[in-house]
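Incident review: delayed structure delivery

Summary: a single-chain prediction request sat in the queue longer than the usual turnaround. Root cause was a stuck worker, restarted by the on-call engineer. No data loss occurred. The affected request and its eventual output are reproduced below so the record is complete for anyone auditing the incident later.

Affected input:
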Amino acid sequence: MSALVVTDLHAGYGDARVLHGVSLSVGEGEVCAILGPNGAGKTTLLRALSGMVRTRGTVRLGDADLAGRSPDTIARQGVAHVPEGRGTFMPLTVEENLRLGAYVRPASRRARAEVDADLERIHGYFPVLKTRLRQAAGSLSGGEQQMLAIGRALMLRPRLLLLDEPSLGLAPLVTRELFRIVRTINEQERTTVVVVEQNAHLALGIAQQAHVLETGRIVLSGTAEQIRADEQVAQSYLGYRV
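Output delivered after worker restart:
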């Protein structure tokens, strides 16, 4: 059963068109990797899914029609977007950043208790954040800021998690640990994930399916194993010949 269905999606900035008829579907609880060169439209695709750019076409999450909706409306439908560059609020504390992730929840005593419980859930994934709760987000390392950005997104209890270049600027060891945690989140919570990532090895390692974007169009789709075994992808993104 598909959680996300995108049909003939067009998007861009002003008169500049970036996406040209992108269609894909992601099954409930799956991880989908989006690969491609710089400028292919990967970031624009995630922005289109979260309502940050104008679109034409169809975007459905379950029974909900997201096309043309505002970002806050899409967030209320359960879409959490971790943008490239993390998007943390640097002057705010770690705890304040995390609690902001739950801003769409109704204000009630029960809701506050659930938010507190979810904070503990996030600490289970990212124990280092629990030791940094009173620190300003801007004082964290790059890896800790990325953990905070993902933790804040999870406070939404998302149905769909969008990750844009989560490894950007991180050391290889930190990156591998981050992807291990994303895999654990996907497996334990059955959260559907769409990840844009330059490190194709890591992205394909946690994904069930993948799509390759070039100049705003999908040029190759398949299972992660099929994409990994494709000679063109292997030479362009994985650094070896099949």
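Verification: The two ends are 32 Å apart (CA to CA).
Action items: add queue-age alerting; document worker restart procedure.
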